[in-house]
Amino acid sequence: MNSFFYYGLPSFFEKVFSEASFPVSSDIFEKISLRYQSEASREGASLSFKKEEAFVYALGRMPATIAAIKDVLRRLRQQNSKFSPNSFLDIGSGPGSFLWAFLEYFPKFERGVLWEGNASFLDFLKLFLKEGETSFKSLQNVEVLEKNIINLSLTENEEYFDLVNLSYVLSEISEKEQPNLLEKAWKKTRDVLMIIEPGTPNGFLNILRARHFFKEQGGFFCAPCPHQNRCPLENTKDWCHFSVRLKRSHLHKRLKSASLSYEDEKYAYLIVQKKPVERNSLESRILKNPLKRTGHIIFDGCSQKGEERITISKKTPRLYKEAKAKEWGDLWENEEE
User: Contact at 8 Å (CB) between 88 and 56?
Assistant: First the structure.
């Protein structure tokens, strides 16, 4: 098959821009990035994009957001290996980063719905689906709906989804508007809801507010939290976030005027379930890059006890071997005391 899915995201964008009437413009990307980061955006103002702006922004951001979403889906699979969603709802789809990542883990599904309010991103999504249907018949089961996520009504049809996604959405609306969106997303969730935000202090604050909301709603934290207790990083100078490294394509480097062949995407996330999570009570989430010293390895972890520092010595060969393979964001199972 000649679908772009078999050649990856770079080939898809090569095809898109070879057929487009506008160039790959670093100036457009810089301007639209500044608009996204502006105070107006953070306060939930509606941002409109021309077609070339939406497509250029997608080229600049999709590789990183796809990488982050794939990493979160990987964590979901690690924690809940039996979960295999037949349906999903992606709220605030943008150019379709979630769908691309979702297909890698769950290529067969019966129902998918994408909510997006920006007309130019809707055009991009339709192109994406048209190109992909030859390789993934499941994409014929995807419905794209134009929705303003700020003014969602809670009285709409009662359709529920195995997996509901909110990726890079809370940071685009005001704190005041977040509870309504979280309520709507939770109401639509049959099994699992996942939220991803930029790995910044503000992104983490959005995750914390969502965590408080879902705890009050009776949700169960799947990841990264290994417990239902108060977040030990709340009201501290630190923040819970993770990182994934991705390769830059030729077009990606050109757009960003970058020399490095890779970039690191920092993100914060929360996965919540409607049902209790099966887990080892001794688990600890590794919050930073492990410190590998001569003769020992040090983890900064989060467990039911709160934030803790774990030291694994070479004098315990089995544990030391396991510790050497661990990375930032992994789970570590503490030994019984």
Answer: no
For the chain, the first-to-last Cα distance in angstroms comes to 56
Handedness of CA 319, 322, 327, 329 (dihedral sign): negative
- Cα separation, 79 vs 331, in Å, equals 10
Do the Cβ atoms of 41 and 47 come closer than 8 Å? Answer: yes
pLDDT at 40 exceeding the cut of 50:
no
Q: Which residues contact 101 (CB under 8 A, 6 or more apart)?
A: 66, 69, 70, 73
* 206 shares a domain with 134: yes
Domain span including residue 129: 7-273
pLDDT tens column, 160-200: 999 999 999 999 899 999 999 999 999 999 999 999 999 99
* Integer Cα distance of 201 and 175 in angstroms: 14
Query: What region, left, alpha or beta, does residue 306 occupy, with left being phi > 0 and alpha being psi -120 to 50 degrees?
Result: left
Q: For residues 298 and 186, give the distance between their C-alpha atoms in angstroms, rounded to a whole number.
A: 37
pLDDT (average), residues 200-221: 97
Is 229 found in the same domain as 205?
yes
| Per-position DSSP letters for 216-268, written without gaps between them | HTT-EEEES-SSSS--TTTTSS----EEEEEEPPHHHHHHHT--SSEEEEEEE
**319 and 246 both lie in a single domain:** no
**pTM of the full structure:** 0.91
Return the pLDDT at 213.
98
